[in-house]
Amino acid sequence: MAAVDLRQAARDHLWLHFTRMGGGEPPIIVRGDGCYLEDIEGNRYLDALAGLFAVQVGYSYGEEMGQAALAQMRELPFYTNWSYAHPRAIELAHEVAQLAPGDLNRVFFVSGGSEAVESAWKLARQYHLARGERRWKAVSRRLAYHGTTMGALSINGIAALRAPFEPLVPDVIHVRNTNRYHRPREESEGQFTAFLLDDLEQAILQEGPETVAMVIMEPVQNAGGSFTPPARYWRGVREICDRYGILLCADEVITGFGRLGAWFGSELYDIRPDLITSAKGLSSAYASIGAVIAADDVVEPFLSETSMYAHGITFGGHPVQCAIALKNIEIMKRERVVENVRDNGDAFRATLAQLLDLPIVGDLRGTGFFYALELVKDKETRESFADDECETLLRGFLSPRLFEKGLICRADDRGDPVVQISPPLIATQREFDQITSILGEVLSEAWQRVR
Ligand SMILES: Cc1ncc(COP(=O)(O)O)c(C=O)c1O
Prior knowledge:
The protein has two domains: about 5-55 and about 335-450, Aspartate Aminotransferase, domain 1, CATH 3.90.1150; about 65-335, Type I PLP-dependent aspartate aminotransferase-like (Major domain) (Aspartate Aminotransferase, domain 2). It is built from 15 helices and 15 strands. The chain has helices at about 5-15, 50-55, 60-75, 85-100, 115-130, 150-155, 160, 190-205, 235-245, 265-270, 295-300, 320-335, 335-355, 385-405, 430-450; strands at about 30-35, 35-40, 45, 105-110, 135-140, 170-175, 210-215, 245-250, 275-280, 290-295, 360-365, 370-375, 405-410, 410, 420. The protein starts with a helix and ends with a helix. The model has no long low-confidence stretch (mean pLDDT about 95). The structure holds pyridoxal-5'-phosphate (PLP).
């Protein structure tokens, strides 16, 4: 279609996700290379959001991934994982089990992150049932995003996302996240950890531990702006789960496959989860595939002759998607993509830290290639912007202005206003500098406006 027809057809027929439909013409992205994208007008953008935290290897591997997909199409375009195996699903399960930490050895494939979260919750419920206990509740953290299907949506800690779809799936308990920026300044890291763990344990006790099936948390929480865990937090969460017989699920849909400088965040923080949910980076988003990775103990009740996990989806473990994910992992290893994050995360952070000199930037959080800047009205008091100010500042000005200047990143106000920065994992100092320079310019302009 010609550009003009594409625009008209988009207006007439395409329903965008999480997008205000009356909010003007959507950009039409037509191609990508490396860390960069190009729109239909020929403008180039540095994708500092990696296509929603997903395109680990960047946009230049279409040919190689395509050849892997083509070979698989020729050999076996589709078969299902319902009762049958096929070579690519087996090979990918083997590969993922090798990369996953500890005894997380069993892999259940799905089509994306929401399905992974949904499947983890169902698996946790059925795991307890198989052991003679009826436990159904999930615990997650406030503001955390875990997906949009009804189960995953219920787990979300973002009240505004849940509200239109209530009543939701029973029952989810939301506990404190690890946002330290707005805690009292005199509070030590150890005190903060103790405060968070007490909150988690009290919430579980209040609900009745015998009803709680699963605690689900991201190694570093995205929504709210890259909340890293304080020291000893994960050890404490693990201990609480063990004390009450609750399964711990690390939602690694974003943090898995290298974003934090390790294959999994669970490895970086020694989380020792019973379950990992993953998607996005598993295929660098070249295919729609996700996975639940389960530890040996979780699988054990399902291994007898007559038991089964009563859950499945047609496309889970689709051979073409598996072939692409296998190729992605091969590329990530060959190009030392995870090592690039590990070796350059500090340099990236140091470059972004220059922005802390700006009056509007209150905090820089994150690790690896996963950062957020929190924007404040007053650095001294850490006062945040009001809702209407967020509307004009973030939606009205920042997002479109950054895009105009050639930078895709996300201005997010699901919690306090933050700018999220999460480029492809192949980014180098050149991209760090470009991101920092454009952000510096646009955030300075934003400050002039709000003053
Ligand atoms: C932590 C986390 N879990 C789950 C999801 C849902 O993934 P999907 O959009 O692939 O359904 C997301 C999506 O961003 C996520 O960030």
